[in-house]
Amino acid sequence: MTQLFQSMADLSHVRFSAYRTAMKSRRLQKALCLDLLELSIAQSVFDQHKLTHNGQLLEIPGIINCLCTIYRELQQVHPDLVNVPLCVDLCLNWLLKVYDSDRSGKVQVLSMKIGLFSLSKGPLKDKYKYLFAQVAGAAGICNQRQLALLLHNSIQIPHQLGEAAAFGGRNMEPSVRSCFQNVGRDDVIELQQFVDWMHLEPQSMVWLPVLHRVAAAETAKHQAKCNICKECPMVGFRYRSLKHFNYNVCQMCFFSGRISKDHHLSYPMVEYCTPTTSGEDVRDFTKVLKNKFRSKKYFTKHPRLGYLPVQTILEEEHSET
Ligand SMILES: [Zn+2]
């Protein structure tokens, strides 16, 4: 575990906290083999262990029992990848680090579920559904306190990676307000309203959708040349300028903030984690046509934020898009 966290030091060159946190989370997810865990399998193991009361506190033997079932299931499908005793030990260690920092030897069922669901594999929308279901009442709706519980448990993951400050700290109130304001009511929200808000990628939760894109980008190959380091084809994320035709930046150059002389940081770029479709190429071409004669001043005045900002005490974080 110590080695894993030490190995994350090489990600410090990534200037943007959402990407950096997502990349750290991805390494953690793989080390714990949770990238192999389907959401539905996790759910069925929780049911099997009768972990239905999310407020219940689970002691270490209970956590180990549940993790043993999870990793035995994973080992059956991936015998070469999963070492059950090692995975159980690592995952237990991680859960205690994240949700039992004063080492009382107990973790709330809700925390364990949110932690494991957050790093499981599966479509992002399904993940939001599973996460929401953990705090929603029987009617499938969620009040402000319940949403705060969900966000609080999720933000512990980047917090443990030393990254919470960039996501509004541990105060969930601004995020809860942002979600309910987006819905336009203050009593309860439904699943779809939560999903719609999550699609805006709110600052406190942005690391989670970015984690999914980081995973998708790992194997992506783009038939384009990086205008800075000349890598071709580009592997990983591809950033295409919406100001200049045929201007692309690879993941390494983008993360380290490298730009060429004629490209200003305020110019709009679009991120691709998978190779572009012809529809996306046409859409971007039209955007470049519109932006071609717009000045640097225009883009500084009309910034395109990459995520939905929530009020934070760290004002300088607003400048990062
Ligand atoms: Zn490059």
CATH superfamily of the largest domain: EF-hand
Write out the distinct hetero groups bound to the structure: zinc ion
Classify the beta-strand content into a percent band.
5-15%
According to CATH, the fold-level topology of the largest domain is Recoverin, domain 1
Based on the coordinates given, report the CATH architecture of the largest domain: Orthogonal Bundle
Element-level helix/strand string: HHHEHHEHHEHHEHHEEEEHEHH
Distance between the termini: 31 Å
Q: Tell me, briefly, the overall form.
A: globular
- Quaternary status of these chains? single chain
Please list the strands of the largest sheet in the order they lie side by side. Answer: 8-7-9
Please outline the major beta sheet: 3 strands, antiparallel
CATH class value of the largest domain: Mainly Alpha
| Structure classification | mainly alpha
- The count of strands amounts to 9
How many individual domains? 2
Uncertain stretches of 5 or more adjacent residues = 314-321
Domain ZZ-type: 221-277
Organism: Sinocyclocheilus anshuiensis
Protein name: ZZ-type domain-containing protein
GO molecular function: zinc ion binding
